TrEMBL record, chain A:
It comes from Salinibacterium amurskyense. Pfam families: Peripla_BP_4 (PF13407). It is found in: Cell envelope. This is Simple sugar transport system substrate-binding protein. Residues 1-30 form the signal peptide.
TrEMBL record, chain B:
It comes from the Bacteria. The keyword Cell membrane applies. GO terms for cellular component: plasma membrane. This is Simple sugar transport system permease protein. The chain crosses the membrane at residues 20-37, 57-86, 98-122, 128-147, 177-198, 229-247, 253-271, 278-296, 308-327. It is found in: Cell membrane. It is a multi-pass membrane protein. GO terms for molecular function: transmembrane transporter activity. InterPro entries: ABC_transp_permease (IPR001851). It comes from Salinibacterium amurskyense. Keywords: Cell inner membrane, Cell membrane, Membrane, Sugar transport, Transmembrane, Transmembrane helix, Transport.
Length: 351, 342
């Protein structure tokens, strides 16, 4: 009896396995046809974030969802990503997506160079690949296009103007970046410092090398304390990480000081209270939801065989992509968002 | 009583390690002060007290683990999980009360610590491996169950904002002010409590015994499981407390923070003379180790150096101190005709 039962179980397991195999073959055959053929002629566009769960990429997924809603009859668009900001996990996700034969993959790479080879394989499999924050991949076989939200020099000048206004065009200032290896941060600062040197000769950069805050909240605060005590005549601070700006704001708040202009790359929800209370004077950033929309929009155009050219409007309702600049694989938007005191006085932050 | 405790702590002769650390610290402070006159001020001292208090609490917990012969790398994860869960709980219940939030974090921390102790005891695992695993499990479970949303100043409970901004006294200057943070007396209290537990209670003495030799300790009737439960629950509770201090101090709740900084804390405790092989370590040494670490971390701007120098200085002192500890140990062993590997 016992034997008979186990034999029965064995047989049914085998039967199940066989039917699964057959079914599996069936889907592969069907899916092997034209791209996006099986699921109601919709293109499947999958966006892969650096890491899921944080505010920044939650906001990006809102843009992807809005795109999915707006073009729901043509595309099935969604966002996924690793639970930790690990380059290897991103590569695994892209490999899975290649196996699923999606139509387009959008990636915000943790490590642009490292993810290059697997993206190239995706393209060899006929998948459209779009990236952002990955100018290193422009001109390679790994991508179809790279969208940058803005021109780095313009972004830097935006900071410079905000800092100059807050400092009244004179006084000592210092800068900090996440790490001295973050290329884009250094480009922003270079543009900002050049602009200030040309237009505001009374503003003095007292330490030419930017300080580092390692994108860490605690270190942002410690650095601010140190700067305030080292430079008693400090009048301005320009930092390219949200941690840097909120660290300085919290130091100024605790010390009851409002004589130092605090200018930072930031998010509305991080900077909002500091801007309102006068401990941050100017913030600047961009909207990751716009990224999500713009990247999906260009991918869809390519899938439909349309070309994307300079001057095109990607129809993103919050602005920044009304007139893109196309240079080969590189596409530039102009989504530079200034955040100023009074803007969020109602306490409602978009992200 | 209080006076009695302090005199007893201070009357103990300093170990050579502690003297050595004090010397390094004094020389370093003189160098920094000569480079940047603004450094030698009460304001800098208060900034240091504020920025280093979280690290100090973690280090005191870490000291007990090292004395017990273990190596815990899960305390930063416990700090975040305890702190974050407690904040979410208080928000969900609408209870904006600091005592409630701290108690929640401390209890959750102690519970997670007891899980560590049970796993280490019953599976006879190396403490490093066990806590390496549980650190990921705790943090991963928190992200899955509670999410990883950050809370900025606008969403941080008001009681925590008040706590983070509270000074026990404030010095006003022309257009600025600075104060000694409320964290400072809390750190002192934790230090005294840790000293009392280690040196004035049975359970504290059994931590030393288990750390020196678990086999002998169990033969003289020490309950190893109870000792381990105490050690890991205590470090868990301190971590939970530190989580709230950390979040309150920054007025920003980021569940991805802190994890990954545990080795710095352990290194500071080791610099302070705690032996990785267990059974040895002092409160004063730990305090000096953490202060030196924080000094390096908070003075590079004064010296005009980039932040990589922090790692360089700290690493150099660590290697030097370890060499010093083991050299002395070997000499002592030789004199006592003890021939062991450590």
């Amino acid at each position: 009896m016992k034997l008979a039962r186990s034999r029965f179980i064995g047989a049914s397991v085998t039967a199940l396995a066989v039917s699964a195999l057959v079914a599996g073959c069936g889907t592969v055959d069907a899916g092997g046809g034209s791209a996006g053929g099986e699921d109601g002629d919709k293109f499947r566009i999958v966006t892969v974030s650096k890491v899921e769960g944080i505010t920044w990429f939650q906001r990006m997924s809102e843009g992807v969802d809005m795109f999915n809603d707006a073009y729901g009859d043509e595309v099935e668009a969604y966002q996924t990503g690793p639970a930790e900001g690990d380059p290897a996990l991103q590569v695994q996700i892209v490999e899975d997506l290649i196996a699923q034969n999606v139509d387009a993959i959008i990636v915000v790479p943790n490590d642009p160079i490292g993810i290059g080879p697997v993206l190239e394989r995706a393209r060899e499999a006929g998948i459209v690949v779009g990236v952002t924050e990955a100018t290193q991949l422009v001109g390679t076989e790994s991508i179809d296009f790279d969208i940058e939200s803005f021109d780095n020099a313009d972004f830097g000048v935006g900071f410079a103007k905000g800092l100059a206004e807050a400092m009244g065009g004179e006084g000592e200032y210092v800068t900090s970046v996440g790490n001295l290896t973050s290329e884009s941060h250094l480009l922003w600062l270079e543009a900002a410092n050049n602009y200030i040197a040309e237009n505001h000769p009374d503003m003095v950069l007292v330490e030419p090398t930017p300080y580092e805050n390692n994108n860490d909240d605690q270190q942002g605060r410690e650095l601010a304390d140190e700067l305030l005590s080292t430079y008693p005549n400090l009048k301005g601070y320009l930092t390219t990480t949200p941690s840097g700006g909120s660290g300085m704001a919290s130091a100024l708040r605790d010390k009851g000081r409002t004589d130092v202009a605090n200018v930072s790359l930031t998010l509305p929800s991080v900077a909002g209270p500091d801007l309102e209370d006068g401990y941050m004077d100017f913030g600047q950033g961009w909207d990751p939801a716009g990224w999500g929309w713009a990247l999906n929009s260009v991918a869809l155009s390519i899938l439909k065989g349309e070309t994307v050219a300079t001057g095109d409007d990607l129809a993103w309702e919050l602005g920044g992509y009304e007139s893109i600049v196309v240079d080969g694989q590189l596409i530039l938007g102009n989504d530079i968002q200034p955040y100023i005191p009074g803007q969020f006085s109602d306490g409602n932050y978009p992200f | 009583m209080m006076r009695n405790v302090t005199t007893r702590v201070l009357n103990r002769k300093m170990t050579p390690m502690e003297k050595f650390l004090l010397a390094i610290m004094a020389i370093y402070i003189v160098i920094v002060a000569s480079q940047s006159p603004k450094f030698f001020s009460l304001e800098t001292a208060f900034d240091l007290a504020r920025n280093g208090s979280g690290a100090m609490i973690l280090a005191l917990g870490c000291l007990i683990v090292l004395i017990s012969g273990g190596l815990d790398v899960s305390f930063t994860a416990i700090a975040i999980v305890g702190g974050y869960s407690s904040v979410l709980l208080s928000r969900a219940l609408g209870v904006d009360n600091l005592l409630f939030i701290v108690a929640g974090a401390v209890i959750i921390g102690a519970l997670l610590g007891s899980i560590n102790a049970v796993i280490i005891h019953f599976f006879q695992l190396s403490t490093l491996i066990a806590t390496l695993g549980t650190a990921s499990v705790f943090h991963g479970a928190m992200v899955i169950l509670l999410g990883s949303k950050t809370f900025t100043r606008a969403d941080v409970p008001q009681s925590m904002l008040d706590f983070g901004a509270f000074s026990i006294f404030t010095i006003k200057e022309e257009n600025s002010q600075y104060g000694l943070t409320i964290f400072f007396p809390i750190v002192i209290a934790v230090g005294v409590l840790t000293w009392f537990l280690l040196y004035r209670t049975m359970i504290g003495r059994s931590v030393f015994a288990v750390g020196s030799d678990p086999e002998s300790a169990s033969r003289i009737g020490i309950n190893i499981l109870r000792t381990r439960l105490f050690v890991y629950m205590y470090v868990g509770a301190l971590s939970g407390l530190m989580g709230i201090i950390y979040f309150s101090g920054l007025a920003y709740i980021n569940p991805a923070a802190l994890v990954g900084t545990e080795l710095g804390v352990i290194a500071a405790v080791v610099i302070g003379g705690a032996k990785l092989t267990g059974g040895e370590g002092t409160i004063l040494g730990t305090v000096l180790g953490v202060v030196l670490w924080q000094l390096f971390q908070n003075t590079l701007v004064h010296l005009g150096l980039s932040s990589s120098f922090n790692d360089l200085f700290f690493g150099a002192v660590l290697v030097f101190m370890l060499g010093f500890i083991y050299l002395r140990q070997r000499q002592a062993n030789k004199r006592a005709l003890v021939f062991t590997s450590n």
